[in-house]
Amino acid sequence: MKNKHAFLLLSHALTSEQEAELCQGWQVQEICPLPAELQALWSNVPPEIEELSAYLEPLFAWLAQKARPEDLAVIQGEFGAVYLAVQKAFALGLVPVYATTRRAVRETRLPNGAVRQERFFKHVRFRVYGR
Question: How far is residue 40's CA from residue 14's CA, in Å, rounded to a whole number?
């Protein structure tokens, strides 16, 4: 059995629950974050540019070099970039996934009569794009 990797195209760190699911539920042996320069590129997609393919090419070249078919690509971020990354992942034979969450709201009545709402998001599972 080959060593399965999960490549992270995210703007945030994984939670411990997400890491556990990747390793136990998806049999991932190694979680691979983006190198710093590619992380900066993914996390800061300029809203002014009209076309994203050329902008994302360094990231896609890195992914094509490092990933192997059946590796996972955990993809979440700017909508247009996500769309292109999911297409690239499928073209490379990767399994593109995203996190699903359950939202809970807690309301607290303050002494002055105001209400404070806190929202909590709890990881539920990873889901393959397109399923």
Answer: 17
Nearest to 33 by CA among 3, 59, 58: 59
Tokens for 23? 């390793």
Radius of gyration of the chain (CA): 17
The 10 Å CB-count burial string (b at 16+, else e) for 76-108 is bbbebbbebbbebbeebebbbbbbeeeeeeeee
- Cα gap 118→105, rounded to integer Å: 6
pTM over 0.85: yes
pLDDT digits (tens, 9 = 90+) for 8-39: 999 999 999 999 999 999 999 999 999 999 99
